[in-house]
Design goal:
- By secondary structure, the protein is of the alpha+beta class.
- It has a single domain, classed as YbiA-like (Tetracycline Repressor, domain 2, Orthogonal Bundle).
- 43% of the residues lie in helices and 11% in strands.
- It has six helices and four strands.
- The two termini are 27 Å apart.
């Protein structure tokens, strides 16, 4: 399993630099786009888009006016951004090279929704980011198979 999205596996992180287009605007990372998608207020989205780093974008995203449907759409929005990210040939290849390894966004900041935390030797949490990455990897793999094998 891969439990750390740093170093050789930084490309799996939402902080990895890759252009993401959301509603006609280009964002420098998945994190920027995701945080901007939380709100419908144009000025808040633009401030996030222009944030100097993914960390800054994440901080700004915590203070936006949430769109009314956020809790029901956030996982689909993240999936769309990840699908877009892995249309990049080099990133798509790196994702495929993870084989069938389980992808876990292991973290020390306590996020048990998007990732997992280690508690008494066990990974605890829903790991939605890891699950979505594995789904995209499966889709990419399926799309690379010849039509006759699908």
């Amino acid at each position: 399993m891969i439990t750390d999205f740093h170093g050789d596996h930084f490309f799996l992180s939402n902080f990895f630099p890759v252009e993401i287009v959301f509603e006609g605007d280009v964002y420098p990372t998945v994190e920027h786009a995701f945080q901007a998608a939380k709100t419908s207020i144009r000025e808040q989205r633009e401030a996030i888009r222009l944030a100097a780093s993914p960390v800054s974008a994440k901080r700004l995203g915590r203070r936006v006016t949430l769109r009314g449907d956020w809790e029901t759409v956030k996982f689909d929005i993240m999936l769309g951004f990840l699908r877009q990210k892995f249309t990049q040939p080099d990133l798509r290849q790196k994702l495929l090279e993870t084989g069938d390894l389980e992808l876990i966004e292991g973290n020390r900041w306590g996020d048990r929704i998007w990732g997992r935390v280690m508690i008494k030797g066990q990974w605890v949490g829903k790991n939605h980011l890891g699950q979505l990455l594995m789904q995209v990897r499966s889709e990419v793999r399926e799309n690379q198979r010849p039509q006759s094998e699908r």
